[in-house]
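Hi R.,

Here's the chain you asked about this morning:
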Amino acid sequence: MPKGKKQRITRQRKVILEELRKVTSHPTADEIYQMVKKRLPKISLGTVYRNLEVLSKSGEIQKIDVDENRLRYDGNPKEHYHIKCIICGRVDDLHDLPDFKMEKKTSTITDWEITGHRLDFFGICPACLKAGRKR
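And here is the predicted structure, written out as tokens:
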């Protein structure tokens, strides 16, 4: 399905989207399942996974791959970067960084057709620093 193509919004998909947009913690599919299950007790984990994939492919949400063990999801579909704490795993949004024109600029200096890019930031979050947690 091409990015940006709208899909029929089922009740399950609507609840998943609503729950994901309530938080800024960039939850995993399992965490989203636990959130959604409170409103839709009969929903299956497989249904949550399938709907997250549909929402991601349609551009309604972002699938972020900053965790080597599992994907996380972001209810904010606008282009922005993320930063991950190397101690506790917290993931936050990064705004006001260089714009996404990097792809167009790269196309002008190479023979490549650039289809996207990924830029990951890692560090120690304020809570871990305050608690004195180090690597």
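One quick note: The CA atoms of residues 12 and 93 lie 26 Å apart.

Cheers,
M.
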